[in-house]
Amino acid sequence: MFVTQARDCLCFEDSQNGLRAAIGAGQPTIVTPSLYSAGEDFSGAALVIETLEAFWRRPEFHADQEQRERRAAGG
Question: Is the pTM above the cut of 0.85?
Answer without folding.
Answer: no
